[in-house]
Amino acid sequence: MDTLKDSLADYIVVLSRSIQTTADVIDRDNYIKHLAEAAKIFSCLHSGRMSEARELVIDQRRIYGWGRLSGDEGRATTTAFEKFASMAVPSHDDRHMTIGLSQVAQPGSQGEV
User: Fold this and answer.
1) Which residues, at least 6 apart from 7, have a Cβ–Cβ distance to it below 8 Å?
2) I need a surface site. Which of 4, 51, 102, 108 has the fewest CB within 10 A?
3) What distances in angstroms separate CA 109 from CA 1, 5, 26, 106, one per listed residue?
4) Domain limits of the chain?
């Protein structure tokens, strides 16, 4: 779990940096939205709501697929997100995900999420 949170923290750092350095106003707005979603994901991970975190990651993966962030900032952000998302929800086939967040057991949960 710490590695997953570390990867999410790395993604948040890249998002924060990209907000500050991008010259594209539309991208800046998108970075802010991604940062808000990252905060929601962190909150879910922190409080043990793994199914909700998984769904948020899946939604974010779809959003990244619909639009491209421009320049070096966009490439760095997309790379950082994909690194985190591949740890959280390894399969790109949302219907067959069986590892990642779906297998993270919570204390006292008998291995169920």
Assistant:
1) 83, 84, 87, 88
2) 108
3) 15, 20, 43, 5
4) 2-103
